[in-house]
Design goal:
The chain has 101 residues and is mainly alpha-helical. The protein has a single domain, classed as Non-ribosomal Peptide Synthetase Peptidyl Carrier Protein, Chain A (Orthogonal Bundle). It is built from three helices and two strands. The protein is elongated. It is found in: Membrane.
């Protein structure tokens, strides 16, 4: 068996091409969601942040500084991505309720 044939079988058996496509689409979706959060959602929240700079908003408790603005942005990114993955799973699996199998 030639090495090229073995490699082709490996790609087919482990569905490497599909995984690569999913990874690339996931990276693009992440960039899109980050832009949504940073450019649309967070500017709406900015007026409620003391000092008006949500990215650098911090809370100082003695010697400890909590960077809650950055964390809030990451949390919103995660929630949106998790919701999108949920919707895709629901749509692809065509189920009434997404359940563990």
């Amino acid at each position: 068996m030639s090495i090229i044939k073995e490699f082709k079988e490996f790609l087919e058996e482990y569905k490497v091409i599909g995984l690569a496509v999913a990874f690339i689409i996931g990276a693009a979706a992440t960039a899109l969601v980050q832009s949504l959060v940073n450019d649309i959602i967070m500017p709406l929240i900015t007026p409620f942040v003391p000092g008006g700079e949500w990215q650098t908003a911090t809370l100082a408790i003695g010697p400890f500084v909590i960077k809650w603005g950055s964390f809030l942005s990451s949390l919103i990114n995660f929630l949106i991505l998790a919701f999108v993955v949920f919707l895709i799973a629901k749509w692809v699996l065509k189920e009434e309720k997404v359940t563990k199998k």
